[in-house]
Amino acid sequence: MKLKAGKTYFNDLWYQMKADLRDFLKTGDQEKLHHFRVQVKKLRAFLLLIDHTLPHSKLSKLFKPIRQIFKDGGKIREAYINLQLSSKYELKNEDFILQQVNEMDKDIKAFMDNSKNYMKTVRLVHKELEADLKEVKGERISEFYKNQLEQIALTLSSLEFNEGLHDCRKKIKTLMYNRKIAQKALESSLQLDNDYLDKLQDHIGEWHDSLLAIELFSAQGISAKPVVTKIKRQNTRQRKSISNLAGDFWKKATLADQPVNNGQEVRVWV
Which CATH code, of 1.10.260, 2.60.40, 1.25.40, 1.20.120, is assigned to 1-136? Predict the structure, then answer.
């Protein structure tokens, strides 16, 4: 990854993140907040790629002030999603719903009150990070993908439905977020099945969301046993789907034994 290409990619992500944050601060539109948080994840994935491929790189540390804005926005999203889940499962608990509305309104106000500080932070952190970006050799990017895929394969080879599986999803998302900037480095050494990886991480995400929903609706005072029973049935189906998808992960993810675009066999790590 040439420095110029890296900076262009970084700035494209950054300016979109900044625009989404500014739009949310102006309108309070939940979709803008969601898009802002997705851009933060993409930027963090890019910085992690660099930190893992260059010695002494600490870009992720410089990014922490932005992650704090991300976390502040997460409080708003949590209440909003709880309200969506309540509607989806037709929860009849006015006290809980009112509590979530009040929490969301309070967190939105606190977020808006910090708007000037947030935008200043975005400007200052951008300046620091852009100045510290470096060129990354393609071989190092390939090594990073190899290492992450091996860790994912190891986790899925002895599949357990715990936080380790959720961490596995985060690794997949990091690879997918970086696929555009990593494409050139990988084209002669590794061919990824993006559709498969996207499907797998999506299923793991749905499984994890259902766990959170079970925990939410099982809390004392909510009284939602029928809802919890319904979600548990969904969770069982999700586990079966993940088990089927996770089998032979390495072969499915890397398109092992399939030719790349130039007609040569894909070289995979074993």
Answer: 1.20.120
**In this model, does residue 119 exceed pLDDT 60?**
yes
Q: How confident is the model at residue 263 (pLDDT cuts 50, 70, 90)?
A: very low
User: So what's the pLDDT on residue 259?
Assistant: 45
Amino acid at 71: K
Q: How many residues does the chain have?
A: 270
pLDDT at res. 93: 87
**Contact at 8 Å (CB) between 256 and 268?**
yes
Kindly report the average pLDDT of the chain as a whole number: 92
Whether the pLDDT of residue 268 is over 60: the answer is: no
Domain boundaries, the chain: 1-136, 138-270
CB 176 within 8 A of CB 214: no
Residue with the bigger pLDDT between 191 and 35: it is 35
DSSP letter string over the chain? --HHHHHHHHHHHHHHHHHHHHHHHHH--HHHHHHHHHHHHHHHHHHHHHHHHSTT--HHHHTHHHHHHHHHHHHHHHHHHHHHHHHHTT---HHHHHHHHHHHHHHHHHHHHTHHHHHHHHHHHHHHHHHH-----HHHHHHHHHHHHHHHHHHHHT--SSHHHHHHHHHHHHHHHTHHHHHHHHTTT----HHHHHHHHHHHHHHHHHHHHHHHHTSTTT--HHHHHHHHHHHHHHHHHHHHHHTTHHHHHHTTT-B-TTSPBPP---
